[in-house]
Each structure stands twice: as C-alpha cells, then as structure tokens.
Design goal:
about 160 residues, alpha/beta, Hypothetical Protein Ychn, Chain: A
Length: about 160
C-alpha cells in the first residue's frame, strides 16, 4: 500500500511538473509580443527521459514558432542525461541521437551540454557527439541566454 501511494505521489508530482512546463508555454503564447528567445533546461534524467523531453520541446517550439516566427531557441542539458549524448552511446540511443541531429541541423536550435559536469565525472568533453556544443557550464550557459532576454522553461525529465 505504501509503495502504491508513493507511486501515485511521484506520478502526480511529475504530472504537475509537465503541467508547469505546458503552462509556461501557454503563457508565452498568450503574450502580445514575442520573447527574444526561449531556453529549455533539462537536468536529472537518463537517455530515454531526455529523448521524451526533447520530443515535447519540439512540439513546444513548433507552437511558439507559429506564433512568434522570429523567436530564437536553445536547449541546455546538464545532468546525468547528457552522457547519453557521448559518441560511444550512439548505438544504445539511436532515436535520441537522430532527434538531436534533427533539432540542431534541421530546426537550427543549439543544444548545449555541461563541460564542467562532464569533467567532474571524468568524461572527456571531446567524447560528446559533434552535433552538440560543450559549454563550460550548463547553468552559466542558461544565465547567459537569460541575460540576452531569453525566457527559461524547465523541462521535466522523469
């Protein structure tokens, strides 16, 4: 019974967070003026949850671009999930890697990973796929975007 209650609590918590990201996008869409840009933050998941969050991000970008064609977008991932974007993990995560390639090349959205966290985890930053940008620090990269006028949307990774 306790496990069931715990599962329900976690489901409600994650649903609330996904609802929060959707509410943030809805609020942006309700604005009369376009934001300079939107930066999507992703932290705290694995390769599968990153892929799912990126799929939602693509849907949000599509809606936002329709309303605000000149708005710019960026994605920053800076938790354990970023390691699914290492070269040697391409075979384990082919859908994720195809999605990232499409986001960066076809949709023209930069995707940043956190070099500081990689180095703290004894990962050589040169081992990330070439499609992503290795930032010195994921949180500082987000701060730089926000200083340029970008709006932050925190994405749920569960």
């Amino acid at each position: 019974m306790i496990r069931l209650l715990g599962f329900i609590f976690l489901f409600i918590l994650s649903s609330t967070t996904i609802a929060d990201e959707l509410e943030d996008v809805t609020k942006l869409l309700a604005q009369k003026s376009a934001p300079v840009g939107v930066v999507f933050e992703m932290v705290g998941g694995d390769g599968e949850s990153l892929n799912i969050a990126l799929r939602r991000t693509q849907a949000y970008v599509k809606r936002l671009r329709k309303a605000f064609p000149k708005t710019k977008f960026a994605i920053v991932t800076h938790g354990l999930e970023q390691f699914s974007l290492l070269e040697h993990n391409q075979e384990d995560n082919p859908d994720l890697h195809k999605r990232v390639e499409s986001i960066v090349k076809d949709e023209n959205i930069p995707l940043h990973v956190c070099g500081a966290f990689a180095e703290m985890s004894d990962i050589d930053t040169k081992d990330f796929i070439k499609t992503v940008d290795v930032s010195d620090s994921g949180p500082l990269q987000i701060q730089e975007y926000m200083e340029k006028g970008y709006v932050l949307i925190e994405m749920e990774l569960n």
